[in-house]
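Standup, Tuesday
Yesterday: got the pipeline producing C-alpha cells again.
Today: sanity-check two examples.
Blockers: none.

Example 1:
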Amino acid sequence: MPRARPLVLVSNRAPIGFSFGPDGGLEAHRGAGGLVTALRPLVDRHDVTWVASAMTDADREVAARGARDERSAAGSSFRLRFVSHDPGVYRLFYGVVANPVLWFVQHGLWNLKQDPDADLEPPWQDGYVEANRALAAAAVEELDRVPEAPVFVQDYHLYLVSALVRAARPEARIAHFVHIPWVGPDGWAVLPPAIPRAIHEGLLACDSVGFHTERWRSAFVESCEALLGRGAEAESCSHANPITVDAGEFARLVAGRGVRARREEVVARRPEILVLRVDRIDPAKNAVRGFEAFGLLLEQEPALRGRVGLVALLEPSREEIPEYVDYRLAVEAAAADVNRRFARPGWEPVVLDVRDDFLASVAAYAEYDVLLVNPIMDGLNLVAKEAPLVNMRDGVTILSRDAGAFEELAPWVVGIDPLDVEGQAAALKQAIELPPEERRSWLEAIRSHVRTHDLEAWAARELELLDERAPLRA
C-alpha cells in the first residue's frame, strides 16, 4: 500500500450507520454491504474523510451536528460527513432512478420493468441530479479542508459527482470505481439520450475510472465513443481491477461461535449432496432459473431423488420496489413447484430460507458440495470468492459466464449460460460427478487466487493508477 495520505471517499452508503437506542441516545452500527468491507484497507491506512448519504432519522441527526470522528471495525479513525437529502429527493434518487432504472439497464433487466415508458426526466432532475449535487458539494467542502486529497467516488448511485467536483475544483484529482456491469450503447438506448450522455460525461470527468473486468471496461469505451465520440479518452482513463474479499476475516468468522453453532444446524439437516445458493432476492441473481434447473436435474436423474437437496439462503432486497416484490413471489413459486413435484416423506428437495443472516451463509459455505452462482449479469459476485475460502467438502462452483468473477475463476469452475436452464441442469450433474482429485484442485486454486489478489492489493492499485494519471502537483 502506498504511503498514508489524505483521501476523500464518496459513496451513497456510509461505513457506519446510526439508530436511536432505548434511552433515545445514538447507537452506531457497522454499515451493510460489501463496499464497506472492500474499502477497509483505505480507511485503515490513510487519513480518510468519508462523505455519504444519511439513511435514517438518527443519521440525519448526526448530519445536523456536522462532520465527526469515528472508528472503523478495525479501530482505525476516520472523519464521517453525512449529507441529509430531502426525503422526496432521496426517494426519487434511490428508489426511482438508481435502482429500478440504472440497475436494471446495467444488468440487462429492462424487459422486467413494469413501467418502461415512464417519463424519467422529472425523477432524474429532481432526484438523481439533486442528490449527486448535494454529495458533490459536501465533497468539495471537505476537499477545501485538505486540498491535496484525491476524491474517490463509488458506484452507480453517483455517476455525476465527479463532473460536479471537477467543475467546482478543476485541479482536483478524481477517481471513480464502478462495482456493477457496464453495457454497450444498445443497452443505454432504452433511456432518454440526455441521461446516458450525462452519465458517461460524469465518468470522463475523472482522472481514473475502474471496473471489475476488461469486459465492462471495454463496454464503457464503446459507449463513450458511440454516445460522445470520446472513446480514446475513455480508453486512456479506464482500467480493470477486480475486487476481492478479506480472507482473514472469513477465517475468523468460520472459527467463531456464531458460525460454529449455525454450522451444526446445517450438518444436522443436510442431505447427502448439498447444493447451495446464497443471494439477495434480486432479478439479476436469477434464482428462478436456478430452481427450474434443479427441478430438471431431478426429473432427468431419478437416482438423485432423496440424495440431493438445494438450500437457498436469500436475503430480502429493495422490497419497496414493485419489480422486486414480483420477483420474490416468482422465487417462492419456483421453489414450491419443485417441492410439489418431487418431495416425499423425509426429503424436501428445496429449502428456501429468506432472511438476513450473514453468519448462516458462512456456515453453509463450509458445507456445500456444489455452489450454484448463476446471475444474469453481475459486476463481480463475491459469493464465488467467499464460499471456497471456508468450504470443507471440496465443493465445486458453478458460475455464470456473465458474472465478472468468471473472468478470473474460469479454469476452476463449471461455466454456464445463465439463460440456459437445460445447460444449468447438465452443469449440476457434472459438478456432482466431478472426480475427487479435480474437486480438490479446483477449490485450492480458487483459494490461492483469492488470497493472493487481496483487498490491499486492489486498493493500492487504485491509488497507484490515480497517481500515474494525475500526479500530485507541487
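Example 2:
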Amino acid sequence: MIDPNIVFAGLSDVFTLTNLLYILIGVTVGQIVGATPGLSIIMALAIAIPLTFSLDALTAIAFLISVNKGGTVGGAVPSILINVPGTPESAATALDGHPMAKKGKPLKAMKYSLYYSFFGDISSDIVLILVSAPLALIALKMGPVEITALMIFAFTIISGLVGDSIIKGLIAATFGILLALVGLDPGISSERLTFGQLELYEGLHLTALSIGSLAMAEIVHSIVHSRKDDGPAESIVIKTGSRADSTVTIAELLANKFVAIRAFVIGTLIGAIPGLGSTTAGFLSYSITKQSAKDPESFGTGDPRGIAATETANSAVVGANLIPLLTLGIPGNIAAALLVSALVIQGVQPGPLLFQEQGRLIYGMFGAMLIANFANLFVGQFGMRFWAFVVSAPKTVIYPGAMILCVTGTYVVDGGIFAVWVMLGATVMGYFMRAFGFSIVAFIVAFILTPQLEQNVLKARLITNDNPMALFSHPIALALLALAIASIIYLGPKKKADAAL
C-alpha cells in the first residue's frame, strides 16, 4: 500500500516555479512541433532527451511528458488547416476537421479538437493514476521466470502489431537484442562484441541510437522523398467571422458526450496494450462512431462527432501507454520507450519496484501530467492563430535545424565524437529499416528491454537449475509463453492478409 504522505509529497513537488515553467515550455514546444509538417513528436522527444541531462529527475520527466502531450494537440492543426497531419495520430482528425475548416469554421474545428483532446488526455491520466499502483503490486508477485515469459510475450505482441509483418518485426527485435548485448556480460563481466573498442565496453548508448534511428532517419527519409518544388502547403486563412463559426459552446460539446466517452474508453484500452498507438485508436474510434451513427453519410463533411471520436481517442492513449511501463517496465510505444531512456539517465529503473523505490517521483510525475493537460488547454487556446503560421514553415529551415540539434544533443550527452558516429550509423540503419518495412518500434523496445530480460533469464536459470521441465511449476509463465506462440500464429497470417488488401 502506498503511503499517503508519499503521494502528497510527490504531488506537492510539482508546484515549483522551475517545474511549472518547464511544463509550460514543454507543452509549447510540443504544440509547435506537432503543428509543423515534416517534424514528429518522436523526433522532438529524441532531440529533447539530451536537454534534460542536467535537470532534476522530476523536472526532466515533466518536460518530456509535456512535449508529448503538446504534440498530440498541435498535430491536429495542419490536419484541419491544410489536410496534412502534423503527426500520424492526427490523420483521422483531417477526415472531418478539414471539411469543417473549408466551410469557413477553422477556429471552431481547432477548438473542438483542443477541448476533446483535453478531455481524453486528462481522463486517461486519471485512469493511469488509479490503476497503476495496484497493478504494480500484482506485478511484484511475479518472479524472474514469469517476467521472462512476459517479456517474450511483449516482444511477439509488439512485433506482430507494428510493421509490415510479424517476421520483419521479430527480425527487428532480434537485431535490437543483438546490439544491446554489446559491452560486458552481466554474469561474468567478459567483453562481448566490442571488437577491441574501449568505447563499447559500456555498450551502445541509447540516446545516440534512438536519436539516429528515430529522429535523424526520419529527417533523411523526408529529405530523400521531398521534391525540389515542394513548398509550404496552401492553408486556410483564419478570419474572424460570426461568433458561432469561431466558438464552441458547452452545449455543443455536451451534444457529443457519449461519442467522447466511448472514444476515451477505446483510447485507454488501446494505450494500455503494448505495440498499439494513437493512430490505431483514432481510426478505430472514428470507424466505430461512424458505423454506429444513424446518419453515417454526414461523416467526412465536417461533422463534429468525427473530431470528437478521433481527438479524444488519440489523446487518451498518451496517459494509458504509461500503464505497462510503470507496472511492468515494458514501454507501450516509442514515446514511452524514450521516456525509459530519460528515466535511466536519471538513475531510475522502470518496473513494478518503481512505486516502492521512487514513489515520490512517480506521484510527482502524475501531478505534472495533470498540470500539463491544463497548460495544453491554455497554450492551445491562445496559440491557435500562431500555429497557423507555423504550418507554413519552410522545410529548408526545419530540417537543417533539426539535424544540428540531433548531432549536438548526441555529442553533449554521450560524451564525444564516437557517440556521433554511432548516431550516424543508427541513422543509416533506421533509414533502411523504414525503407524495407522493418519495425523501428520493435527494434528500440527490444534494445531497451534486453538488459532487464538478460538479468531475469540468468535468475530464472538459477531458479529452475536449467531444467525446462521446471516450467510446469510456473503456470503463469507457461500461460504467457502459450499466448506468445498464439500471437505469432494469429498475427502472422493476419498481417499477410492486411498486406494483400
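Quick observation on example 2: Strands lie at 183-184, 191-192. The two ends are 50 Å apart (CA to CA).
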